[in-house]
């Protein structure tokens, strides 16, 4: 890391008394960046959704990917301990993704209700039998509406169910080295696919409108830093693979931003999607 280059120079120049404090500060700084740096990219996206009251440009499958990846990473820790900052990062990321899901669900449901009210008020008296679509719930076990539910509590139930099942399987299989290593690989591979839902969403829309470019730029810088951190700290090899794949996907999304801004495709009107659940 950076301290490996700075500290030897300080020792040669007679600054030995500063070596220990600087060493500690650099370690704390790197650890803090690992713990909290992962959630920073979602702050501009969260604020954009809050300000515009429109979440169509953001794929909530990003939240699904990160929730699964970080739950698996925490379970992997029980089989093979890794650095505490990485464990804390997973806990904070899970909380952040739940907050993102809560906001996106509230915004989407509110927009659907507003559109239904406008449609109902514009209808003739003979259309008074206008029926609202049935509510979608996790407990319906309908795969057609998986991750397109109407209530935030359904997402929480799904996360708890997944955690319970995978946690129990992990508890029974902790003595298996093959299982633990496979679990670690699944965790980092899932996280490496983080940007894929957003990449596909942009491709479907032929536009990056509604997606925070700041978020993607922060993804890229954060994933680059994280990959270097993994390599220098000799983290399990799965983590380094994850970082490299993430940087590759981030660059692909940035290429989409450039391409769709220089060569605009047919615009997708948000108003033509009264129920934006499929987008989310």
Automatic annotation (TrEMBL):
It is a multi-pass membrane protein. It holds the Pfam family PQ-loop. Keywords: Membrane, Repeat, Transmembrane, Transmembrane helix. It is found in: Membrane. GO terms for biological process: phospholipid translocation; retrograde transport, endosome to Golgi. The chain crosses the membrane at residues 25-46, 58-78, 84-101, 152-171, 238-260. Its main location: membrane. GO terms for cellular component: cytosol; endosome; membrane; trans-Golgi network. This is Solute carrier family 66 member 2. The gene is SLC66A2.
